[in-house]
Design a protein that fits this description.
Blueprint (H helix, E strand, L loop, with lengths): L5 H25 L1 H8 L3 H27 L7 H17 L4 H14 L3 H25 L5 H29 L9 H29 L5 H12 L13 H8 L1 H4 L3 H36 L12
Helix pairs in contact: 1-2, 3-4, 3-8, 3-12, 4-5, 4-12, 5-6, 6-7, 6-8, 6-9, 8-9, 8-12, 9-10
C-alpha cells in the first residue's frame, strides 16, 4: 500500500481530532439534554473518571508490552508509552480497530516484527479479553446464568479454534517465527487484561452511580462485560452507537434502564474525548521536545526521523 506524503501524515491526525471535537460540540449544541446531564454531574465525578482513564492507560501499556514480548521483542518504557498514547488516540478517532494496525506497523518498522506474528499475539490478547468479558457477564447474570454460560462456551470454543488454526498455518508455512506463548507470559497477559477490564468496570460503576443511584459494582461488571463485546463489531469511532446498542440488548442481564445507559454514555464519552485531547497535546509536546533535543555529534550523521 502506498504511503501518504509526509506533510499529510503530520496534518491528518490533527485534522481528525479537530473534526471530532467540532462534531462533539455540535452534538451538545443541538441536544440540550446532554448539556443538562453534564451540568448536573458532580465535577469531582468527572475528575475521578479522568483519573481512572489514566490508570487504564497504564494497564493498556502493560498489555501491549506483553503482546510484543510474545513476538520475542520489547520496546523501551518511554517508547512503549508513546506508542500506547498514539494508538489509543487513533483507535478512538479512526474507524474499526485502527490502534492494533498502528502498533503492528510501528513494531514492523522499528523491530522488524512480522505482521503475522503480531497478529497472532493480538489474537491471543483478544481471546483472553473476550473470555474475561464473558465471565464478567456470567458473574452477575442471576437468573440468566444459562445465557451467559452459553456465551462463555461459544467464546472459549471460537477463540481456541481461531488460535489453533492460525498457529497451524504458521507451522505448515515453514517460515521462521518468533511468536511463542510461554506459561509465564500467558499468565501475565491474563492478569494485565483482567486489570484493564476491571478498571473499565470501575469507570462504568462510577458513571452509572452518578446518573442512576443504587447501581452496585456487580451490575457494573455485567454492564462492562456486555459493553466490551461491542469492540469486535465497532465500525464507528469509539464504537459510538454500537456500544449503546449492545447495552440496550443486554438490559435483562444488567438491569440498567435506557435513560441510565444514555446518561452514563454522555459522561463517559465527554470525559474520554477530553482525556484524549489532553493526551494528544502531551504526546505532541513530548515528540516535539525529542526533536528539539536531538543534537547530531557530526554533520555527516543522519538524524533519525
Amino acid at each position: 500500500m502506498k504511503r501518504l506524503p509526509k506533510p499529510l501524515q503530520n496534518i491528518l491526525p490533527i485534522a481528525i481530532v479537530v473534526v471530532t471535537v467540532i462534531l462533539f460540540v455540535y452534538l451538545f449544541a443541538t441536544h440540550p439534554e446532554y448539556r443538562h446531564t453534564l451540568a448536573t454531574t458532580n465535577p469531582w465525578i468527572l475528575i475521578l473518571v479522568g483519573v481512572l482513564y489514566a490508570v487504564l492507560m497504564l494497564c493498556s501499556n502493560w498489555v501491549y508490552d506483553i503482546t510484543l514480548r510474545l513476538c520475542g521483542e520489547r520496546l523501551s518504557r518511554r517508547e512503549n508509552i508513546l506508542l500506547t498514547c498514539y494508538s489509543t488516540i487513533v483507535n478512538y478517532f479512526g474507524p474499526l480497530q485502527s490502534g492494533p494496525g498502528v502498533r503492528a506497523a510501528y513494531v514492523k518498522q522499528k523491530r522488524n516484527v512480522k505482521y503475522r506474528d503480531y497478529t497472532m499475539a493480538s489474537l491471543v490478547y483478544y481471546a483472553i479479553y473476550a473470555v474475561i468479558s464473558a465471565i464478567f457477564i456470567l458473574v452477575g447474570s442471576g437468573t440468566h446464568w444459562l445465557i451467559a454460560l452459553t456465551l462463555l462456551g461459544i467464546v472459549c470454543i471460537s477463540s481456541t479454534s481461531i488460535l489453533y488454526f492460525a498457529y497451524k498455518r504458521i507451522v505448515r508455512s515453514g517460515q521462521t517465527s518468533k511468536f511463542r506463548v510461554t506459561p509465564r507470559l500467558g499468565i501475565e497477559l491474563t492478569l494485565a487484561t483482567l486489570s484493564q477490564l476491571s478498571i473499565v468496570a470501575l469507570i462504568y460503576a462510577v458513571e452509572l452511580r452518578a446518573v442512576h443511584t443504587g447501581v452496585d459494582f456487580t451490575r457494573a461488571v455485567v454492564y462492562g462485560g456486555a459493553a466490551n463485546f461491542s469492540l469486535f463489531v465497532s465500525l464507528t469511532p469509539g464504537a459510538i452507537g454500537f456500544r449503546e446498542a449492545f447495552l440496550e440488548f443486554s438490559r435483562q442481564l444488567h438491569h440498567i434502564p435506557t435513560s441510565g445507559i444514555l446518561a452514563a454514555s454522555v459522561i463517559d464519552r465527554s470525559v474520554y474525548v477530553a482525556f484524549l485531547g489532553a493526551l494528544f497535546v502531551l504526546t505532541l509536546g513530548l515528540h516535539l521536545g525529542d526533536r528539539f533535543n536531538r543534537k547530531p555529534t557530526n554533520k555527516s550523521v543522519a538524524i533519525d526521523d
